[in-house]
Hints:
Strand content: 5-15%
Oligomer: single chain
Amino acid sequence: xxPGVFMPIPAQVPGAAxxxxxxxxxxxxxxxxxxxxxxxxxxTLYRVWVSxxxxxxxxxxxxxxxxxxxxxxxxxVADLAAGTLDEVLHHWSGLGYYARARNLHRAARMIIxxxxxAVPREFEALHALPGIGRSTAAAILSxxxxxxxxxxxxxVRRVLARWAGxxxxxxxxxxxxxxxxxxxxxxxxxxxxxxxQAIMDLGATLCIRSPPRCADCPVAADCVALATDRTxxxxxxxxxxxxxxRDVVWLVLRRGESLLLAQRPPSGLWGGLWxxxxxxxxxxxxxxxxARGAGPRGRRLAPITHAFTHFxxxxxxxxxxxxxxxxxxxxxxxxxxxxxxxxxPAQLGLATPVAAxxxxxxxxxxxxxxx
Length: 371
């Protein structure tokens, strides 16, 4: 279904209620919405695209400083395409969901190669780029070009599921189809950019998970969830399932002030980022340490637990010391490995727990304990 095609109003959404939705929401937005976000200034397809990718599964307050640094380094799509993946991941480090950064970089190069360096203005071409889903493509075109493009991001799903009384988990295909029909029904023919920002703001500031601020909601008069006292159960929860866990060992080789890091494969967990060599068991990590000239005795550092969306990673870091290199040496690279000195850091993308451990090992109290 093309988001630009108007669909029939769902049975549970009366036409009069759908007609009232946008005017009420826009009146609220003009008084209470967010109008000073960085990507709202000097709006271009590129600037809005970067912001929408960063905002996927990440709150606005978290994104703002990352966005500022990213746009300073990559102010235009040509700059992003010309940058290395390491640079892109370095400026993304700490923001999480790193596939977004890899896709952003790939898409920028595709724009240079296949679109003459201009971010596509047509839905199909934009949607075809890596990392740009249906709702993201619609939001970019709506916010940057004022095109009528209904959207359905996480916050909007919650707003519309409650307002229209749509039952079930929004990630289920049948529920998602129904929510798209509701989004089509309430999206106005004009003021698309303001409406898109308004409905996202409504979900981010009033129609939050718990507790929603229904007394301040501009569309509360027609909200099915509020009328039936179901704001706590709509939208439906994800079906329960056990969260699996995985255990790994990180080999932390230190030589003077430098730590050995290895680049992870381009896809998968923390794809393309740099981290400590990873093993399935302490014995395998110790064997690798001995093969590099480390002594048989290492020590376990504090365990690290890192939660992902679908599983929990439990990390055991093993620290082994190597003879110190010359004081002038900072980085040596070979076969996807580098000696990383946090006092004179190279611009590499580091996953959050890797950066935290590097910082801990470089802390003054650790240095004093080594003396």
